[in-house]
Design a protein that fits this description.
It is a single chain. By secondary structure, the chain is α+β, with helices and mostly antiparallel strands. The chain is about 40% helix and about 30% strand. The chain is built from three helices and eight strands; from the N terminus they run E-E-E-E-H-E-E-E-E-H-H. Strands 1, 2, 3 and 4 form a four-stranded antiparallel sheet that branches. Helix 1 (about 40-60) runs antiparallel to helix 2 (about 100-120). The longest helix has 21 residues, at about 100-120. It is globular, with a radius of gyration of 14 Å. The model has no long low-confidence stretch (mean pLDDT about 95).
């Protein structure tokens, strides 16, 4: 089973302007990088959306790294309308194929919850929030085409 997680209750605005919070991915064998992994959650989700859009459009594999630690996800075209996700830097050896529509739906749902939580905190003008909004528009456009 695959699931993307964000914890909107963990969000914190750093002095640098970056928004930190818990973000991780459940793979069949492990929580990656770890359950409740704290990272720059908004930029990470934006980078994941941009990476996924690029793979869906070009068919060329890409990699997206977490900002804190040596962890990344290798994103590649899978069979049919699936995307192959392989974690790197953790214990998982093999990747998992996820239907593109399922992956995009989870990404958009997590992104929308993060944006709503940031707006509620008065962070709507934050550069990370705007970057995530743009990335979600791009991935929605690919899915609807």
């Amino acid at each position: 089973m695959f699931e993307l997680h964000v914890n909107v209750d963990s969000l914190e605005l750093a002095k640098s302007g970056s928004i930190w919070g818990d973000v991780w991915i459940s793979f069949p064998e492990e929580e990656f990088p770890h359950e409740n992994w704290n990272d720059m959650v908004i930029p990470y989700l934006a980078a994941l959306a941009e990476c996924l859009r690029a793979v869906m459009v070009s068919g060329i594999s890409r990699q997206v790294s977490f900002y804190d630690g040596p962890y990344s996800i290798h994103v590649a075209p899978g069979r049919g309308a699936a995307i192959l996700l392989k974690p790197e830097g953790g214990l998982v050896v093999k990747g998992v194929e996820v239907p593109s529509a399922v992956l995009v739906a989870q990404l958009v749902e997590c992104g929308d919850r993060l944006i709503a939580a940031c707006n509620k905190r008065g962070w709507s003008a934050n550069r990370d929030v705007r970057q995530l909004q743009d990335a979600l528009l791009g991935i929605r456009a690919v899915l609807s085409s």
